[in-house]
Amino acid sequence: MPLQPGAILLGGFAAPEADQLLADIQRIEEANPFRRMVTPGGWQMSVAMTNCGEVGWVTDRSGYRYDWLDPETGEPWPAMPMSFRSMAERAAEVAGFTGFDPDSCLINRYEPGSRLSLHQDRNERDFDAPIVSVSLGLPATFLWGGVTRGDKPMRVRLLHGDVVVWGGPARLTFHGVDTLHGGASPAGSFRYNLTLRAAR
Ligand code: MD6
Ligand code: FE
Asked: Which CATH number is 55's domain given?
């Protein structure tokens, strides 16, 4: 389902691979635990994050950035699992972005009560590549905003296995996630979101 030019929701696209993706998340988390980072403004995020790939997205009092090392462990991030890469390349292709070559994956973990306020993804080096976003576990309401933070966002339900691909004219659209509700899911009482990016 097209959301706007450049952005498409592929309902259930990753459902057949969801168990493998969840197993790979667990492996990454064992080495590089989820942690709730602090924004440059000093707020602790309600969403817990970790990364895999060459670089990982981090935030602290000094700003948002991609970093080669996990500030928590001082080590490089774990390699991107084949399951992530393969799924993202196929989803991008279906959405019309050929040759997507992700080098980073931010993994978000939401628990009931977690939310993500409206933001743009603009720390990547070039905005020509799309972002592939995979939802696993509990359903969420994605807030699909506009060109400015003040535009009233559209509300889109994202379910276990759904994939959103966006790029081109939609690449800098404001977006966020409404407060997560509790429940049961194939990932327990969590929602995970993978965002695969060409960051560097
Ligand atoms: C989430 N996603 O779904 C948050 N950003 O948990 C994002 O912030 C996001 O899904 C850029 C591209 C795709 C996304
Ligand atoms: Fe984002």
From this structure: 2.60.120.590
